[in-house]
Amino acid sequence: MKTVERIIGYRMGTGGSSGVGYLKQVLDHRFFPELWQLRTEL
Question: How far apart are CA 8 and CA 19, in angstroms?
């Protein structure tokens, strides 16, 4: 994340995304929550 922030800063990202802001938002989203729960239990 820091590398991307340093390279592109807070400029618009590829495909018209909001760049670093978009990446931060996506990293907070968990896909397949059941697998994360199973991983925690193991």
Answer: 7
Cβ count near 2 (within 10 Å): 7
For residue 14, pLDDT beyond 70: no
For the question of whether the overall pTM of this predicted structure is more than 0.90, the answer is no
Q: End-to-end alpha-carbon separation of the chain, Å?
A: 28
Q: How far is CA 27 from the centre of its chain?
A: 3
Surface-to-core class of residue 11, CB atoms within 10 Å of its CB (0-12 exposed, 13-18 middle, 19+ buried)? exposed
CA pair distance 15, 42, nearest whole angstrom:
38
